[in-house]
Specification:
About 45% of the residues lie in helices and about 15% in strands. It starts with a strand and ends with a helix.
């Protein structure tokens, strides 16, 4: 890993795209680079949506080139990608045609992300794409296998975001047997599920390669950082214990406009992340 960095989930600094809580802001995504730079952030975690997937700049060479130019101009890197596409079209979809298309999309994404220097592609396995039974786990393992080989060759992590308890997530990691299959840890989702962050991070913390920062209430939705049930003191204590050295991506609560509520939450979280940087260097 290359050390702790602080970034933002794509779209959090911009007005909502088509009224959606989280989406790639097609047509005006470019504006976020300069806004992120002004706020002292280092990265933007791009989103790959199911809708209009082949219009996403991550999916074609001219789009990759445009991202590289903006990154060079602003200093804002794209090192991680949240592939929300797989929420709608899981790799373990029981429909063979859909699963085959998802495998194709993932392989294109890995190849293009190599050109960007991306370190992590986050594959959500939550909600309707949850790995909540053995059949789904089996199909997932089978359908991701060829992409794991490509990820290893490309030096890109396939970072799994799941709703599984620690022992079951470890079981999946052991089944896939690759150092390039890692874990995305989401502070808000963990709180919503009632999990203990210290137990989680001490169980598989060495496999975490990307962290989403948000706050949620138990069994409920997203709220402003510090207002929900995320156990931030225990979380950051565990982060220091495992000597985490990757990105923190702000996926925090948003309103229709985005930027003011983001600034408020950035001011709240940044000192805590800075303290981690200091602790994990010493």
């Amino acid at each position: 890993m290359n050390g702790i960095t602080l970034g933002v989930m794509q779209g959090r600094l911009l007005p909502k795209y088509q009224g959606r809580y989280q989406a790639h802001p097609l047509g005006y995504w470019q504006k976020e680079f300069s806004l992120a730079a002004k706020m002292g952030l280092e990265t933007i975690e791009f989103i790959l949506d199911f809708n209009d997937v082949y219009l996403n700049p991550l999916m074609y060479s001219e789009g990759i080139d445009e991202i590289l130019v903006l990154s060079e101009e602003t200093g804002i890197k794209v090192k991680t990608v949240c592939a929300d596409y797989f929420m709608e079209a899981p790799l373990h979809d029981h429909r063979r045609e859909s699963a085959n298309e998802s495998r194709k999309v993932l392989k294109i994404l890995i190849k293009n992300c190599t050109k960007l220097g991306v370190t992590d592609i986050i594959i959500p396995c939550v909600d309707k794409s949850s790995l909540d039974d053995e059949l789904k786990k089996g199909r997932f393992s089978e359908n991701i296998f060829s992409s794991i080989e490509l990820a290893e060759q490309s030096n890109i992590n396939l970072s799994l975001e799941t709703d599984l308890a620690p022992e079951f997530l470890i079981e999946i990691l052991d089944r896939l047997e690759s150092h390039k299959v890692t874990v995305n840890y989401d502070t808000g989702n963990s709180a919503s599920l009632g999990y203990d962050p210290k137990e989680e991070l001490l169980a598989y913390g060495n496999r975490i390669s990307d962290i989403h920062i948000k706050d949620r209430v138990y069994r409920g939705g997203s709220v402003v950082l510090g207002m929900g049930d995320t156990k931030f003191p225990a979380f950051f204590e565990a982060v220091v214990q495992i000597n985490y050295q990757g990105p923190f991506i702000m996926q925090a609560y948003r309103d229709d406009e985005g930027i003011q509520v983001f600034k408020k939450q950035l001011d709240w979280i940044k000192p805590r992340i800075d303290a981690c940087k200091i602790a994990n260097v010493s």
